């Protein structure tokens, strides 16, 4: 196992000075230390493609650059990799954690495909790669090989296996008082009918929703980070008389912020978009989001009809009640704190993800819903 310090020193040792990325728990310890490293500057990005583009810009400006990402987001950087770095021959190091590699666990089926195909994809597009594993070669040897490719003007990928880099220690202090993901989810569910659909983003919000009360109308997105609002938009437009709730995170919302414009443009009156804004990526170690964003202002500028904010537990219930009854699309920003469903059970540990989709679809299209829709007209 490589220490976080040795990993960062190896980055600097091949001339890297600028690093961008999106957090992964495999990199939790290096990300805790990178801001204190004398030779490295870290700039967090909203998504993997943006991280790679920023690194490409720094490289064009004469600074050795790298990105830290996880393989589940590899699709987000395919475009800048194949249409920018490769044709322009911009030598950026892509350090990619490999979830689901060499095989995915039963509880994380969303990582199975990427865990299998990335090496073959890299060969197909002729991108060299090396592997850093818990029992593999020394980190300096792996980085030296990667550096040789960079010197030739080629981008190179370093695949990092689970346990190859030490993990960050668990937080030693209790979280500050405030609204947690569990509190938010419980408050929302208390005010919804059992047949009203709720879609939750990847991470602790989905865990909190599952633990608060599993039901067919819950759709847990364990992957596809940043897309829950878009999925909810599709549901809301096809079932215009059914209230639809999307539980989003601040980091996930930032990843594909353009969805706010799509929601505002389509203007579904039945969509309630709730963003839990706790300032960080809690499930990957609590790394801060790229910037503090006024989601209400973004939503209003994009055409949401109603924007609300809840900042304390005392007013949370009334604000949720208002959001669920206001004309939509509604954006409710809930300013919260870490400390919700940490370590809790994933939905996929109790029900397969394809079963989650099947029963959710049946809930939307079943006889009970059609009867409800007819009676509302």
UniProtKB/TrEMBL annotation:
<dbReference type="InterPro" id="IPR017684">
    <property type="entry name" value="Phosphono-pyrv_decarboxylase"/>
</dbReference>
<keyword id="KW-0670">Pyruvate</keyword>
<dbReference type="GO" id="GO:0033980">
    <property type="term" value="F:phosphonopyruvate decarboxylase activity"/>
</dbReference>
<dbReference type="GO" id="GO:0030976">
    <property type="term" value="F:thiamine pyrophosphate binding"/>
</dbReference>
<keyword id="KW-0210">Decarboxylase</keyword>
<dbReference type="InterPro" id="IPR011766">
    <property type="entry name" value="TPP_enzyme_TPP-bd"/>
</dbReference>
<dbReference type="GO" id="GO:0000287">
    <property type="term" value="F:magnesium ion binding"/>
</dbReference>
<dbReference type="Pfam" id="PF02776">
    <property type="entry name" value="TPP_enzyme_N"/>
</dbReference>
<protein>
    <submittedName>
        <fullName>Phosphonopyruvate decarboxylase</fullName>
        <ecNumber>4.1.1.82</ecNumber>
    </submittedName>
</protein>
<dbReference type="GO" id="GO:0032923">
    <property type="term" value="P:organic phosphonate biosynthetic process"/>
</dbReference>
<dbReference type="InterPro" id="IPR000399">
    <property type="entry name" value="TPP-bd_CS"/>
</dbReference>
<dbReference type="InterPro" id="IPR029061">
    <property type="entry name" value="THDP-binding"/>
</dbReference>
<keyword id="KW-0456">Lyase</keyword>
<feature type="domain" description="Thiamine pyrophosphate enzyme N-terminal TPP-binding">
    <location>
        <begin position="1"/>
        <end position="97"/>
    </location>
</feature>
<dbReference type="InterPro" id="IPR051818">
    <property type="entry name" value="TPP_dependent_decarboxylase"/>
</dbReference>
<dbReference type="Pfam" id="PF02775">
    <property type="entry name" value="TPP_enzyme_C"/>
</dbReference>
<keyword id="KW-0786">Thiamine pyrophosphate</keyword>
<dbReference type="InterPro" id="IPR012001">
    <property type="entry name" value="Thiamin_PyroP_enz_TPP-bd_dom"/>
</dbReference>
<feature type="domain" description="Thiamine pyrophosphate enzyme TPP-binding">
    <location>
        <begin position="216"/>
        <end position="334"/>
    </location>
</feature>
């Amino acid at each position: 196992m490589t220490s976080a310090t040795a990993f960062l020193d190896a980055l600097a040792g091949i001339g890297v000075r600028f690093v961008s990325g999106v957090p992964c728990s495999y990199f939790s310890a290096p990300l805790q230390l990178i801001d204190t490293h004398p030779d490295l500057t870290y700039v967090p990005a909203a998504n993997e493609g943006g991280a790679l583009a920023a690194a490409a810009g720094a490289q064009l400006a004469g600074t050795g650059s790298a990105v830290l990402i996880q393989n589940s987001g590899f699709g987000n950087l395919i475009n800048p990799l194949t249409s920018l770095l490769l044709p322009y021959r911009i030598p950026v190091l892509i350090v990619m954690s490999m979830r689901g590699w060499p095989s995915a666990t039963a509880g994380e089926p969303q990582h199975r495909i990427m865990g299998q195909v990335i090496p073959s994809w890299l060969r197909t597009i002729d991108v060299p790669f090396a592997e850093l594993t818990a029992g593999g070669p020394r980190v300096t040897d792996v980085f030296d090989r990667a550096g040789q490719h960079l010197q030739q003007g080629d981008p190179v990928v370093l695949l990092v296996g689970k346990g190859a880099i030490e993990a960050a220690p668990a937080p030693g202090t209790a979280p500050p008082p405030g609204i947690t993901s569990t509190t938010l989810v419980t408050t929302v569910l208390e005010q919804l009918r059992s047949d009203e659909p709720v879609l939750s983003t990847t991470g602790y919000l989905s865990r909190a929703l599952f633990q608060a009360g599993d039901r067919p109308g819950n759709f847990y997105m364990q992957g596809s980070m940043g897309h829950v609002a878009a999925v909810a938009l599709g549901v809301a437009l096809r079932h215009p008389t059914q209230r639809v709730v999307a539980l989003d995170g601040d980091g996930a919302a930032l990843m594909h912020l353009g969805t706010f414009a799509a929601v505002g443009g389509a203007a579904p009156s039945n969509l309630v978009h709730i963003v839990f804004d706790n300032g960080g990526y809690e499930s990957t170690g609590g790394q801060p989001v790229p910037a503090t964003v006024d989601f209400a202002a973004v939503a209003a500028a994009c055409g949401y009809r109603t924007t609300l904010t809840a900042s304390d537990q005392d007013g949370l219930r009334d604000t949720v009640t208002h959001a669920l009854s206001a004309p939509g699309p509604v954006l409710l920003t809930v300013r919260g704190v870490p400390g919700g469903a940490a370590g809790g059970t994933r939905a996929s540990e109790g029900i397969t993800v394809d079963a989650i989709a099947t029963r959710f679809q049946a809930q939307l299209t079943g006889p009970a819903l059609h009867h409800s829709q007819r009676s509302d007209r």
